[in-house]
Amino acid sequence: MPILEVNNFGKRFTIHHLNKTMHAVEQIHFSLKPGEFIGIIGKSGSGKSTILKSIYRTYLPDQGSILYDSKRFGTIDLSKATERQMLFLRKYEIGYVSQFLNVMPRTTSRQLVEHSLLEMGESEDRARMEAENALIHFELDPKLWDTYPNTFSGGEKLRLNIAMATVKQPRLLLLDEPTASLDQQSKKKVREVIEKLKRNGTTLVGIFHDIEFMEGLCDKVYDMKTKHFIYEKEDECIV
């Protein structure tokens, strides 16, 4: 049974001052089994991020359905879920990593990662330990652990963003260019976490321009141009 099924998905945006409506994306179909990883490729402006933001319900879809097999709610159409349901799913089941860090002000990087675990119901001791393990894994300088991330470089912010999302081990994780500003060593650390999450059953949907990063990692590759899979499972992941 699929954990995520996107059927005939479409999204439009209205530019009110021009009185114009634009189709960002339409007729998208794909499904994922638990523990699978799909990479979505396509040129800039093809609608890749729109798909992820609609699954996370930052955007409200205009067409089709996004069926998610929730541990709490059973099969639920995310395009029709209530705000209360979405808040629960974002807190406990669905994670999102973007290229940009948007966090609580005057909160240190250590506290941000700890908070991700505390809101899941973890004890303070375990949250502290797991947060430190995550910060160490992503090689965030210990000198930065107790400072505010608004002073961080782009790569440091992105590594913190990934640590906050992955430490929760969500059932479904959405990755929007998570390696965009990272060096090769940091990309390796991200790959190690994705592989571990997959082994533990997390399902992932990711957008990557770095095709080499996807090599051997993805189970499926979906092309926004053809609106079909150009790779599925047993073959080599070459796109």
Automatic annotation (TrEMBL):
Main location: membrane
Keyword set includes RNA-binding: no
Topology relative to the membrane: Peripheral membrane protein
Family in the record: Belongs to the ABC transporter superfamily.
Superkingdom: Bacteria
Stored InterPro entries: AAA+_ATPase, ABC_transporter-like_ATP-bd, CP_lyase_PhnL, ECF_ABC_transporter_ATP-bd, P-loop_NTPase
Enzyme Commission identifier(s): 2.7.8.37
NCBIfam families documented for this protein: CP_lyasePhnL
Keywords associated with the record: ATP-binding, Cell membrane, Membrane, Nucleotide-binding, Transferase, Translocase, Transport
Name of the molecule in the record: Alpha-D-ribose 1-methylphosphonate 5-triphosphate synthase subunit PhnL
